[in-house]
Amino acid sequence: MVTDLDLVGIARAAATAAASYIRSTTRPADPSAWTVKGRHDYVSEVDRGAETLIRTMLGQSAPGTHIVGEELGSELMLDGLAWIVDPIDGTTNFLHGYPAYSVSIAAAIDGVLEAGVVVHVPDGRVFHAVRSQGAFCNGEPIHVSTITDPGHALIGTGYPFKDLSGMDQYVAQFRCVAATTAGIRRAGSAALDLCSVACGEFDAFWELSLSAWDVAAGTLLVREAGGAVTDTAGRDIGIQHGPVVAGNAVMHGWLLEVVGRRSTVDR
User: Fold this and answer.
1) Mean pLDDT (whole number) for 56-63
2) Which domains does the chain have, with CATH numbers?
C-alpha cells in the first residue's frame, strides 16, 4: 500500500527533476515561440517538456493514477489517488526571466490532500508537506508567522489578469488592505505565494480566482505549517477552483473579514 511518505517522495522526485529540466533549457524570450492559451495566458515548449517528464515519472511510480493539471487534463478527480500538477506555475515570469516560478505537485486520496511539493525553480528551494506530519523547506521545519497586527503585516496577492470582470471588486479589496498593512506584494506564482505564507515571509495571501493546480500543494504546506486556507466565505478548500485566502490564524481571520466585507466593493 502506498503511504503518504511514499507519495511525497514520488512528488519530490518528479518536481525536482522537472525543475532541473527547466533550469537546463534556453528560455524562449521571443514571443513568437510562446503559445497563447487565452487572454494574458501563455505556454511554451518548456512547459510541455516539464509536463511530459512529470507525467512519465508519476506514471512509472504510481501506475493507473489520475493526473490533473492545466496542461495534463483539467478534470478534477475526487476518487482514488490523484496528482494535481502545475509544470510551471508562473509561466509569464519564466518567459520574461523574472525569478519567481515553480513546479507544484500535490497528491490527494479520495479528495483529501495527503502530500505536496513545490520547488522554487530559480533558487532551488524545495518545500514539502505531508498531512499531519508538518511542513518543511530543504528538510527543515517551517511555520507561519506570528505577526498579529495588520499594521506590521506583509500580504501577498494576485490580481485578476485573465478575466477582468472582477477587477473592481479586487481593487476595492486592495485599497482596504493597502491602507491597513505594512505592504502588499504580487510575485506571480500562487504556489510560491503560499510557500511564503507557510514559512512566514508573508503573513497572509489572497487571490480571487485560482485553479486547483495553482494551490493544491501550497494549501497543504500552509495548513501543515500551522496556518489556515479557505475561500472568501471562510470554507476550507480542497481540490477546487476559486478564491483563496491564507495566513496565520489571526491574519487569515482579519484578511477574510476585509476581503469578504460587502462594503469593500463600494469604497
Assistant:
1) 93
2) 4-141 (3.30.540.10), 150-266 (3.40.190.80)
